[in-house]
Amino acid sequence: MPIRIPEQLPAQDVLLGENIFTMDSNRAATQDIRPMEMGILNLMPNKIETEVQLLRLLSNTPLQVNVDLIRIDKLAPKHTPQSHMDAFYHDFSSVAEKKYDGLIITGAPLGHIDYEDVKYWDTMTTILEWAQRHVNSTMYLCWAAHAAMYHFYGVQRHLREQKISGVFEHKVLDPHNEILRGFDPQFYAPHSRFGHINSAVYNQVSGLQVVAESEQAGAYVVVSDDKRMVFITGHPEYDAETLNEEYHRDLEAGVEPAIPVNYYPDNNPNEAPLVRWRSHGNLLFNNWLNYYVYQTTPYDLSLLAEKAQPKR
Asked: I need a surface site. Which of 117, 131, 236, 289 has the fewest CB within 10 A?
């Protein structure tokens, strides 16, 4: 079954151009099934690019998925037209009474800002707590993963002097965990962050387990025993050029970034990037939707139980 996205959303044309089947609300209404309800809290400045990346991964499943794009505040983002936000995004207050099978909270370019100094931190914590009551399984990406660890468990990230940037080899630590079903023992995934939490710190938290990690980039996939929290410290959704664009953006800003690891052939930024994470990125999202969302969510979402509060 396809993903249902709002009519005229720019991502629709991109996905159709990639031969990815989407449908609008009118066609979805003719199908006599209970679709999965998915929310995306998009914290990235380039909303449209992130929408395409995430919707592409969510579409790779036989399940029908309804998507609500959610904004955290009304401030106009730097790289997205206000008209786009007004047309396609829901204010959190308008969906606060709704329950979701799944929620994705994206990363954000806030690597050097203390959590309490983030302008929307109060709203962020409200949404984190709300998800415990209204969402069956939440996936936290990159900055959001560290922010959730801090809020729920009091775990503070360590800020590295050199940004972790590149495509790193990872190993599967728990091949029997369903979120890694079908994974090769070693696989690649992109990272782009300053924040870091050691795998041992995650594993010391009751109810959490690191199931995939990299020797260079550290913990990558961390899951809760009840499947209702998934922390992804990298960016499986990234397009081929995303790290390249970030690298040249930092160059132009005079940051003098390191060349992303294992990304350009022969480490030469003049060469086209080597893409080798797409299959496992798709598999990760497909496994999450199937085993952590679809197989565990109640048919009647009103019966969704509140998650037990994490213990610090």
From this structure: 117
pTM: 0.90
How many structural domains comprise the chain?
Answer: 1
DSSP 128-174: HHHHHHHEEEEEEETHHHHHHHHHHH-PPPEEEEEEEEEEEEEEES-
In-domain check, residue 54: yes
- CA 227 to each of CA 50, 68, 144, 166: distance values in angstroms, whole numbers, following the listed order: 24, 22, 17, 28
Q: Which domain holds residue 31?
A: 3-159+195-238+285-302
Residue 235: active-site member = yes
**Catalytic one among 49, 51, 213, 237?**
237
Per the annotation, the verdict on 97 as an active-site residue is no
Taking the C-alpha atoms of residue 257 and residue 196, their distance in angstroms, rounded to an integer, is 18
241 belongs to the catalytic site: no
What would the pLDDT profile of 23-67 be if each residue is shown by its tens digit?
555 554 544 468 899 999 999 999 999 999 999 999 878 788 999
